[in-house]
Amino acid sequence: MPAPVSIIIPALNAAQDLPLCLASLMPGLSADLVREVILVDGGSEDATPAIAEDTGATVLRADRPGRAHQLRLGAAAARGDWMLFLHADTALTPDWAERVWDHLDDHTDRAASFTLAFRSDHPMARRVAARANLRARWLGLPYGDQGLLISRGLYEAVGGYADIRFMEDVQLVRAIGRSRLVQLSAQARTSAVKYEQEGWRRRSWRNAWLILRVLLGADPEPLMRPQP
C-alpha cells in the first residue's frame, strides 16, 4: 500500500529556509508516511527549485504568482489520500511523523495543524506563539505557518483553497470548522524574520486586527498590502 501523505510546499525565493524544511521531513520518509514531496514554485530567482529537485522532490512551476494558486496546483497533482500543506520557512520537530500517524489512526474525519513555535530567542517569540496556539485551539483558526494536514475527501468536500491573494489559509480552516480540526503536539518551528523586521508587537497586533475584520465579514483581498 502506498504511503498516505503528500506534502505540498508553496515556495518563492526560499533557498535560505528550504533546506531546513526539507530535512525536517526525514522522519516521515523513514516511517513510510510520506508518499511524495511536491514543491510548487512561484517564480523563484534563487536556487529554490534546484534545492528541491536535489532532494528528490517533485517541482511544479506555477504559471502565475500567488500562494493560494500554488497550493491549489499542488493539491491537484498530489496522489496521497492525505495532504500536508507546509510553508517553506517552517521546519517540523522530529516527533511530527509519530503524531501524524496517531492522527491518521484516530481522526480520519478531521484535519490537523501543528503547535506553532518561532525560531527565535526574542522574549516575544513564545508569547506570540502561545497566543496563536490558543486561537487555534479555541477558535479553530490556525494560520498556514502551522501546517495543515487534511484528507483528500475533506479537502474536496469544503472546496479546497480559494484562489484569493490573501488569507487563503483562514478561508480554508473556517470552511473546515473548529469541530473538525485537531492541534497536534509536534511543533511547526517557523521563521521569525518578518516579526523581527516589522516588530513583534506591531506585526502581532496587525495580524490580530486583520483576522478580526475577516471574522466580522470583511473581504480579505482589499486588506492585503505588501509584506515586509
Compact description:
This protein is of the alpha/beta class and 228 residues long.
Describe this structure in words.
There is one protein chain. This protein has 228 residues and is α/β, with parallel strands linked by helices. 41% of the residues lie in helices and 21% in strands. The chain has one domain (5-223): Spore Coat Polysaccharide Biosynthesis Protein SpsA, Chain A (Alpha-Beta Complex), CATH 3.90.550. The protein contains 10 helices and 8 strands. The strands form 2 sheets. A 5-stranded mixed beta sheet has the order 3-2-1-4-7, sandwiched between helices. It is globular. The N and C termini lie far apart (44 Å). The mean pLDDT is 91.
Through-space gap between termini? 44 Å
**Residue ranges: pLDDT <50 for 5 or more in a row?**
none
Q: Which descriptor suits the 3D outline? A: globular
Annotated CATH topology:
Spore Coat Polysaccharide Biosynthesis Protein SpsA, Chain A
Hey, roughly how much beta strand do the residues contain?
15-25%
Structural domain count: 1
Mean pLDDT over the residues: 91
Rg result: 16 Å
Number of E-type strands: 8
Instruction: State the fourth-level CATH superfamily.
Output: Spore Coat Polysaccharide Biosynthesis Protein SpsA, Chain A
Approximately how much helix is present in the residues? 40-55%
Which class in CATH terms? Alpha Beta
